[in-house]
Amino acid sequence: ATIRLDNFLRKTDAGYQHAEEATQGSHFVRKMATYGQVRPSVSFMSEPRAARPHKDNALMEMSRLPPPWMDPRGEAKEGTYQIPEPSKVPDDTFLTLYRNQSLMLPSERYKEHLYMKEAKKQYDKDKEAISMYRKRVTALERQNPNGIVGVDGPLHPGTRLYAERQMHLLGAADKKAQHEEGRFNNLAERFVSDDATACRLPMDRARSSGPRSRDLGIQRKCVEPELHPQRFQGTHDRLFPNHLPTWDPQRARALRAKEVRGICHNIINGAENELTYNIAK
Predict the structure, then answer these.
(1) Are 155 and 71 in contact (CB under 8 A)?
(2) Is 88 helix (H, G, I), strand (E, B) or coil?
(3) By the 8 A CB rule, do 88 and 126 touch?
(4) Residues 6+ apart with CB under 8 A from 208
(5) Is there a smaller number of Cβ atoms within 10 Å at the N or the C end of the chain?
């Protein structure tokens, strides 16, 4: 096999080079040439840098659906192959007659025997029909799991032979659709960007609609000009206010009481630490 492979590579690949024999000597020489190919090979040189065009019918994911040639094409032979189902369920009520121990005439016992005999034959026949139906369906599913070309398959509407397979595919499709919808919402949430970050708002704040700092991608607190006028003041207004603060003795007394925790004396020397809160005139 090695000789045939060597001859095949010599005839088909122009860049083929067999491995060199081991060099006898005391020094080891590392060589890149290995058995089979050398770099760059002909297959590498003949492939262009441009990507191959992507076909519309090519898929980039795995699918459990049958191949496309199994799809219904509206031919007259579709649905012609059918496996007849058993007509009825086997009747086993005759088994209760085996436990009949009541007194009967010989003629009555004989009639009962004939009925039990015929019922047993019919019971065996019905069971054999059900077993044969299951065998035929199992053989069809194993030999033709994706359907019969142009006749029947899981993708044919109203199929009876592949009804279970069709139900599985529909369930998988619903689950995949639900997963894709959740994935789309998740990706949309991850890729969403604020208008200010993406520079989609006008640079002039006078023309921008909405409250101030709405375009910032941070958490906003209650920012209202009526409730927080100090946040809307300029630098000149902060440095040179129009109103002058007044002295409030009650507020000063309350702050002092919180600082000393209600103690009216110095804890070190015991002297009183009372202060007066008079208004300067």
Answers:
(1) yes
(2) coil
(3) yes
(4) 201, 202, 214, 215
(5) C
Q: Where residue 261 falls among pLDDT bands split at 50, 70, 90?
A: confident
Contacts of 165 (CB under 8 A, 6+ apart): 141, 145, 154
How far is CA 132 from each of CA 92, 103, 126, 163, 164, rounded to the nearest angstrom? Answer: 19, 41, 10, 19, 19
What digits encode the pLDDT tens for the residues 78-109?
A: 888 888 888 778 888 888 888 888 888 889 98
Closest CA to 64 of 165, 197, 151: 165
Q: What does the pLDDT look like over 109-147, one tens digit per residue?
A: 899 999 999 999 999 999 999 999 989 888 988 888 888
Q: Cβ contacts of residue 86 below 8 Å, gap of 6+?
A: 126, 129, 130, 133
The pair of three-digit structure tokens given for residue 145, joined into one six-digit string: 């799991």
Q: Which residue has the tokens 């040439």?
A: 33
- Residue 117 pLDDT: 92
- 3-state secondary structure (DSSP) of residue 152: strand
* Distance spanning both ends of the chain, measured CA to CA: 117
Q: Is the peptide bond before 40 cis (omega within 30 degrees of 0)?
A: yes
